[in-house]
Amino acid sequence: MKDISALKITGLLLLFLVCYSSYGQVDPQKKYKELFQEIQKNKIFSDQKRFVDCEPKGNPDSIVSAYLNQKKTMDFNLKNFVAAHFDTIQNDHLNKTQHIASIKEIELSGVKNDTATILQHINYLWSDLTKEPGKQKEFSSLLALPNSYIIPGGRFKEIYYWDSYFTMLGLQEAGKVDMIENMVGNFAFLIETYGHIPNGNRSYYLSRSQPPFFAMMVELLADTKGDSLIYLTYLDALEKEYRYWMTGNKVVHLGNREILNRYWDADNTPRPESYNQDEELFRQSHRDSLLFRDIRSAAESGWDFSTRWFDDGRTLGKIITTQLLPVDLNCLLYKLETTLAKASQINHDEAKASMYNELGQRRKTLILKYFWDEQSGFFFDYNLKTDTRSSQYTLAGLYPLFFKLADPRQAKKVKSQIETKFLKPGGLVTTLVEGSGQQWDYPNAWAPLQWIGYKACKNYQFDGLAREIAKRWTNLNIKVYFETGKMMEKYDVVDLNRLGGGGEYKAQDGFGWTNGVFLKFWNELNVNK
Predict the structure, then answer these.
(1) What are the backbone dihedrals phi and psi of residue 3, each rounded to the nearest 5 degrees, phi first?
(2) pLDDT digits (tens, 9 = 90+) for 415-466
(3) CB–CB of 261/333 below 8 Å?
(4) Would you say the C-alpha torsion 56, 62, 68, 74 has a positive or negative sign?
(5) Catalytic amino acids?
(6) How far is 211 from 161, CA to CA, in rounded Å?
């Protein structure tokens, strides 16, 4: 029996959907076709994401027609055409004056490392990173949402799926429960509207999702409010998300009723937001067009990009994401199954509760069978191409401990690997592969994986190691903040005098999930001793 709040939320979402159904969002790659390709190939913007986020000044069909007519003229200038027909001014969502004011405050006070300043800075950033729903602009690539939400920052001016869970950890510490509820409601709306939570609320992201943290978000909200009926409010959305992940090519049948999952983007074309990079890689790699799906599917993983996905462990052109069973994804789906069992139990649906519990236990058995390597003492992805476990150590191998799937003996072996291979002066490095130039490789580290590592250790009473991870990471965040005035998207944890780098774009500041994990760690270290 659903509670009245669930009916209320469903009604509000339906009302919002009706109100905005006439405002069709546009996928720039599909709508502008040749014009889109020419803009991206000619690098009208240094960042390929800029154009796909631009809002047209008129009807797209009229813009395409004008382009087809004007491109034939002698004095046609593509850059001028884009400026005339698109709003190309991208306001940086971060209020830079607050960065400056914060640094000036430090200089005037003579304080060189006052942690209160960084906490105040993060507090400012909540409002800077908040995006109000407003009225959806017609023909925009932005997907309308019913509630306000937190964006990551920098070039990322929309909500992102897995980022948001780690941002919510900070919102919880800041007492901003209403915003957590807003964002969980937004994700439920996306599931109801599109059948899944896309990578971000952009039309060009609809072909893929991201690591399925929705069940974790619902649990966080229920725990924060002390209200188990929250599970009933989002039970329908949880079930629909599960159906999305358990349908089509995301599902891999291994025989003997053994089912696990992989990342799989529905489209097999260059990514609109990185069109030129994908086209150039395609030409250089001499791969068939399946390269594009492997690239997109790695984007769905959130680890875009890492040698974790490369057949030779070194080269982006040899990416084989769709031929790998990721250990982290399957652990997250185990969490979704067990959360559905819990929600069904609260709903007094014993049959469904039993079904989801059984599915979860089956998946746990398969996770331990396919991803655990006894000789190495670690959890690895599984390679469908070779029918063997991957040999590459990555922090994805900590997810079985994060969800308490490992036994104490396995956990102790993983702890040894964390200490000897991954723990660096600034925290946990993502992989052990040096020199790849990929942002999800050594020497880079990311806030969500620090939290995964911390909780993985806490779950097995490795409290000393957990505390060391948190201390090293927060100290690095503080150091970089006092040198730059910024909270960064990623960090170099090996050389503490060097900023994180690599990847397809410049290092971004803001930054949603870094702020969230920092606040969580800060309170764990200093308040909840």
Answers:
(1) -80, 170
(2) 999 999 999 999 999 999 999 999 999 999 999 999 999 999 999 999 999 9
(3) yes
(4) negative
(5) 304, 489
(6) 8
